[in-house]
């Protein structure tokens, strides 16, 4: 109690920042500063902008965590949240249901490929991936294949922060210092063409990845593998776009071997690539499950989910264990307020924002690509409204390791001063602005980023 009173007194002078240092645990903290960190205070948002505690306007380059798709301060979303909460703020999902969750499922099913027409709602992306994995285990247990449980994942992947989803993560920082469920996960190479072996063509790299996948299935045994989980484009890994045709070939191998394909569209879904789902529209794959979150409510309400193939549900309906229960549920599954927000968000996307995202994306990519003339920049890559600027020590060797390891952070700090938030990832900066960004705002974003990188080059001289 005493500590609380002390910090309240302190807060009277400098409220949020000091309170955070005293009482808040931030995500991705270092041991040395855990529980004592304060990050940039933002107090409001508007369109593609955030306003910080000093009243400074910042372009929200990463759209939060890839999620503010329709932009900040959307009155339509705020209003529907209020109206739904006044009508029905919650219902207990195991003996009652609500209309927004049923209607949202219908609309999601319309966009999802093939027979993916049932949705289980979660509170975000990690719980969506966790649900898909537990569903795979349940499916195989009920079908009398208890050994068919191994999960295939790849270097560069990010699938969440809950136990099993985090065990799939490919980057060391997302799984070091935890005791991952390594006995359940088989790791494959990152499909990153920028870091493919020197002298190997993109086509040969694709063959290499596909061969590795096929060989792994053979070595582990298809009878032991439950599913593959993959992002259509690896987002947090640095916007890694696998070689053309790769995902389809992986999908075919999964199908031949009765391995479920889980497409993690937590980032790519709901407009980031110009479509509600990218799996089929852009990559010609029909997964068995799609996980989504983030853009489904544009970050206005914590909601995620898994779209599940009807075939899998029918298999369970017909199984020899009709009484087996999928003992999985969340207090906030099918949340009426979240689903109402998602419905309105979908209206906004359909009402012009998806078209706008598709129209402006080539300009966004082309303008960012101009940064490749800066010696520190090894590659700018991206698709739709997601992109990554990868810095290298030397363009020939592409070596990121000799670089000051805080290069991303330095760029972020310079850009922040200049009015742009970027998401630093060691030697990379990721950009995924709200989908409503205009060409003028893109020009501004790129100009600041250029200056931020130039200042970083001066620092490193
Ligand atoms: N899957 C992907 C592809 C993600 O990028 C993320 C988060 O960034 C997640 C899952 C986890 O989502 P959440 O942070 O909502 O739990």
Summarize the topology.
Layout: H1 2-13, H2 15-23, E1 42-46, E2 49-52, E3 57-60, H3 63-66, H4 75-87, H5 99-111, E4 116-122, H6 125-142, E5 150-154, H7 163-167, E6 185-188, H8 202-220, E7 225-230, H9 246-256, E8 260-264, H10 279-283, E9 289-292, E10 304-309, H11 310-317, H12 336-369, E11 377-383, E12 386-391, H13 407-418, E13 420-421, E14 423-425, E15 428-431, H14 439-460
Parallel strand pairs: 3-13, 5-6, 5-7, 7-8, 8-9
Antiparallel strand pairs: 1-2, 2-3, 4-10, 9-10, 11-12, 12-15, 14-15
The structure holds pyridoxal-5'-phosphate (PLP).
Bound ligand species: pyridoxal-5'-phosphate
**Percent in strands:** 15-25%
What pattern of helices and strands is seen along the backbone?
A: HHEEEHHHEHEHEHEHEHEEHHEEHEEEH
* Poorly predicted parts: 1-8
Distance between the termini: 51 Å
Please give the share of residues in helix: 40-55%
The major beta sheet can be summarized as:
7 strands, mixed
SSE class: alpha/beta
Query: How many H/I helices?
Result: 14
Alpha-carbon Rg, integer:
22 Å
Instruction: Please tell me what the overall shape is.
Output: globular
Strand order of the largest sheet: 4-10-9-8-7-5-6
Quaternary state reads single chain
Keywords: Aminotransferase, Pyridoxal phosphate, Transferase
Protein name: Aminotransferase
Family: Belongs to the class-III pyridoxal-phosphate-dependent aminotransferase family.
Cofactor: pyridoxal 5'-phosphate
């Amino acid at each position: 109690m005493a500590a609380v009173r002390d910090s309240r007194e302190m807060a009277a002078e400098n409220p949020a920042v000091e309170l955070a240092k005293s009482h808040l645990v931030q995500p991705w903290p270092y041991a040395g500063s855990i529980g004592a960190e304060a990050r940039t205070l933002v107090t409001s948002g508007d369109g593609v902008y955030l306003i910080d505690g000093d009243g400074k306007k910042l372009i929200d380059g990463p759209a939060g965590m890839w999620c503010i798709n329709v932009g900040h301060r959307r009155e339509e979303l705020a209003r529907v949240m209020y109206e739904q909460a006044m009508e029905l703020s919650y219902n207990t999902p195991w003996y009652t249901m609500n209309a927004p969750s049923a209607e949202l499922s219908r609309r999601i099913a319309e966009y999802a490929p093939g027979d993916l027409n049932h949705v289980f709602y979660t509170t975000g992306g990690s719980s969506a991936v966790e649900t898909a994995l537990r569903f795979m285990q349940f499916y195989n247990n009920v079908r009398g294949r208890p050994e068919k449980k191994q999960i295939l994942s790849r270097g560069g992947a990010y699938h969440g922060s809950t136990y099993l989803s985090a065990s799939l993560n490919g980057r060391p920082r997302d799984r070091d210092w935890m005791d991952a469920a390594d006995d359940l996960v088989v790791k494959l190479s990152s499909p990153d063409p920028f870091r493919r072996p020197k002298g190997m063509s993109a086509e040969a790299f694709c063959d290499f990845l596909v061969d590795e996948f096929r060989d792994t299935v053979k070595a582990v045994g298809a009878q032991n593998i439950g599913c593959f989980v993959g992002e259509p484009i690896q987002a947090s890994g640095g916007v890694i776009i696998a070689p053309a045709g790769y995902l389809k070939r992986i999908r075919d191998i999964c199908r031949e071997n009765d391995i479920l394909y889980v497409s993690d569209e937590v980032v790519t879904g709901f407009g980031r690539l110009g479509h509600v789902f990218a799996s089929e529209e852009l990559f010609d794959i029909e997964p068995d499950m799609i996980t989504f979150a983030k853009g489904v409510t544009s970050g206005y309400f914590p909601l995620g989910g898994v779209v599940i193939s009807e075939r899998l549900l029918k298999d369970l309906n017909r199984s020899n264990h009709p009484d087996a229960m999928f003992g999985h549920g969340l207090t906030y599954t099918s949340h009426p307020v979240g689903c109402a927000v998602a419905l309105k968000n979908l209206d906004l996307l359909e009402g012009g924002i998806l078209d706008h995202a598709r129209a402006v994306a080539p300009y966004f990519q082309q303008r960012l690509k101009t940064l490749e003339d800066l010696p520190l920049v090894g590659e700018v890559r991206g698709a739709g409204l997601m992109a990554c600027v990868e810095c290298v020590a030397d363009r020939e060797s592409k070596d990121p390791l000799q670089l000051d390891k805080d290069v991303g952070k330095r760029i972020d700090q310079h850009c922040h001063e200049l009015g742009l938030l970027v998401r630093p990832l060691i030697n990379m900066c990721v950009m995924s602005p709200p989908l409503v960004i205009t060409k003028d705002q893109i020009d501004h974003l790129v100009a600041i980023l250029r200056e931020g990188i130039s200042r970083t080059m001066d620092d490193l001289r």
